[in-house]
Amino acid sequence: MAIAIAASSEVCYVWRMPRKTDARANAIATAQRLFRIQGYTATGLTQIIAESGAPKGSFYFHFPRGKAQLAEEAIDHYVASRIAVLRNISADTAGDARKFIRQIFRTFAAEMVASDFQYGCLMQNLANELPALDAELTKRVARGFVDSTEVIAQHFRGCGFSPAHASSAASALVAALEGARTIARLERAPSVFKALAEVSVQRCSPPEQG
To answer: Per residue in 33-84, pLDDT tens?
Structure first.
């Protein structure tokens, strides 16, 4: 198996056999990618195993409960990555609600363009398929939205928003972002992100920011 290793501007390829840790990580990454593109129901275990390169026996060693357990871990990984991105943007725009909002929309738009408008939000895709999810998956999706929205609310509180205003503004921003992703995928263009960023700036800024 060829493994790409990035070092500064160079990429080296090392040939080696996959390790158990690789099989687990590859399965989670593959499931996350496919769930974002196809959704949960349309993604079967056969496709995940084939595209991740994991032997079936190795897959069930790591995920004895099968697809549901893999989806749980894919959600957790996706939410952790999303929160890390939001926290980095928050740190770069400390005390500035307008800059924070615009940077979030630019970041999400850039990801859409980089994926050739294939990637939706994993949580949104799964939320649209609630009848197909078990209680644990549903709980994880809901918690993922709550936890990532709280990161946005924390930033707004640091910008002088009242707790109530920060919470409502954060919820509105997340809703706008999810809607922007859907429209961008349909139109195969990122322009909706810029439009909603400006609307969100006007609606989410505290009174003293105009």
So the answer is: 999 999 999 999 999 999 998 888 888 899 999 999 999 999 999 999 999 9
Within a 10 A sphere around the Cβ of 57, how many other Cβ atoms? 8
pLDDT at 3: 42
Beta strands in the chain (DSSP E): 2-7, 10-15
Query: Which residues, in sequence order, are CB contacts of 85 under 8 Å at separation 6+?
Result: 107
pLDDT at 78: 97
Could you tell me the pTM of the whole model?
0.84
Q: Where are the domains of the chain?
A: 66-209
Name the residue among 140, 26, 131, 144 with its Cα closest to residue 82: 144
* Percent helix / strand / coil, the chain, rounded to 5: 75, 5, 20
| Helices (runs of H) and strands (runs of E) counted in the chain | 9, 2
Q: What confidence tens digit (pLDDT) does each residue in 141-198 have?
A: 999 999 999 999 999 999 999 999 999 999 999 999 999 999 999 999 999 999 999 9
> In terms of CATH architecture, what is 66-209?
Orthogonal Bundle (1.10)
Chain position carrying tokens 């709280």: 150
Alpha carbon separation from 181 to 102, 108, 128, 129, 196 (Å, rounded): 15, 8, 14, 17, 11
- DSSP of 156-206: HHHTT--HHHHHHHHHHHHHHHHHHHHHHHHHT-SHHHHHHHHHHHHHHS-
Structure tokens at 171: 């919820």
Burial zone of 62 (CB within 10 Å; 0-12 exposed, 13-18 middle, 19+ buried): middle
